[in-house]
Write a structure and sequence with these properties.
With 105 residues, this protein is α+β, with helices and mostly antiparallel strands. It has two helices and four strands, in the order E-H-E-E-E-H. The chain has helices at residues 14-29, 79-104; strands at 2-7, 36-45, 56-64, 70-76. The longest helix has 26 residues, at 79-104. It is elongated and about 45 Å long.
Length: 105
């Protein structure tokens, strides 16, 4: 599973953010990682240098073997909250999609 993390210019501490994202993905999606070929994560600060409620946005797109990509997003007050929320949503979406695939077979 290849993980690619993209951030906008308003996100500080890019290396720390990438390490955090990779850790969250490995811990929460590790059980289904054999089905995932690539994960793209896009983190943005919606308000730029200004602060505001739920201004951090994380979009996660997972590409599965022989399947269409699945994408989810989540907004929160912090980067950690946005990433964790988006990865949790992705886990639920993948569990649902892979469960349907197993039931169909």
């Amino acid at each position: 599973m290849h993980i690619q993390v993209n951030t906008d210019n308003a996100i500080q501490g890019r290396e720390d953010v990438i390490s955090f994202v990779e850790g969250v993905i490995q811990s929460k999606l590790g059980a289904v990682s054999s089905h995932i070929t690539r994960i793209e994560v896009h983190i943005t600060d919606e308000n730029g240098p200004k602060h505001g409620p739920e201004d951090k946005r994380c979009m996660v797109e997972a590409r599965l073997q022989s399947r269409q990509p699945t994408a989810v997003s989540h907004t929160a007050d912090s980067i950690q909250g946005a990433v964790t929320g988006a990865v949790d949503k992705m886990r639920n979406a993948l569990d649902r999609d892979l469960g349907k695939l197993k039931a169909h077979r």
